[in-house]
Amino acid sequence: MHKYANPARFGALADRILPWARWVMILALIPGLWLALVASPPDYQQGESVRIMYLHVPAAWMSMFTYMVMAGAAFTALVWRHPLAQLAGRAAAPIGATFTALALVTGSLWGKPMWGTFWVWDGRLTSVLVLFFLYLGYMALDRAIEDEEKAGRAASILALVGVVNIPIIKFSVDWWNTLHQPASVMRMGGSTIDGSMLTPLFIMALAFQAYFVWIFLIRMKLEIDRRKAAVMRQSLRGI
Amino acid sequence: MAKGLTTRKSQRLVVLTAGLVTLGLATGLVLYALGSDSLSLFVQPSDIAEHDVKPGDRLKLGGLVATGSFHRGDDGVTNIFTVTDCVADVKVSFRGILPDLFREGQGVVTEGTFDTAGLFVADTVLAKHDENYAPPGTMPKNAAACTHPEGVATAAEMAGR
Q: What is the ipTM of this complex?
């Protein structure tokens, strides 16, 4: 693992993974979207509105996955003071915020015709909104302090504190009564989604995962270059 | 290199892990102390008695729409149905447009107040979706009519009543 701690080696590895991630995303997205939007059956209760689920659920999964990547990076950055770890957190945050916003917006658009409201302050919706604010807070804090080292450390602590929200999001629908439905896929006793709907959902989830890897690696490379430029600028000023 | 807690790295590891565990425990205890009552969106019919609800108190009431309970009032625009949690029932009246997912045997969250006669007068009705996703005609019909109706009446069918 330490082999890739070196930014140049990491860059070479990223360049090798990038085309794969891009192709997996494209090859999953085409059948995924076709199955999700055209070929899968309507739901027995929701009708065609169920199709929003194929965007909403992968976005919601990725919003939590990305947070765990960011928190893992934050932990590594704080304990081992690894320079790449800090950059990884910084690269992941806007992606996670986007996934969270997508989950919130698609959920809201589904909620209006199905529930009868765009928004309700139940445990699930509120905890996901908190997740969105945690991402925004991380990004704001990271930019608010001029010393990048200190900024990264402060933002990392915030990211780690926010980890308590992840189990709250997951179990909010079990612990408290909510308007949001309980878990359908990751639950005891197997999925309650019909196979004809589960297949497009998993293909879309794969596309979202590949999209994350693709954008994350691009952003990592960008952060490394930005860091290099900052160091150069500093050394030029020193002359 | 020194071993154990003598290195800065291992000190940071221990402090950070201990901090996170403490934070997790503290959050868990706070949520436990708040209890599911205060963090839940709605109260269920069987909770009404212990909540000491007076007529005029605003609350959110949730549960299943009892199968066969839906009908229109004498004025033709008021929706009347029973919300049940299989232990207790509450009769609800609502004037307004019901959401698409409103079905007998499905969950609802209503908001309003009790009148003096014990009727829950709702000004908002939200439909709750359950965890099942299936193509039309494939959902197994559940014998336990309380948790799942034998025949799910659609909004259009109910409108005919």
A: 0.79
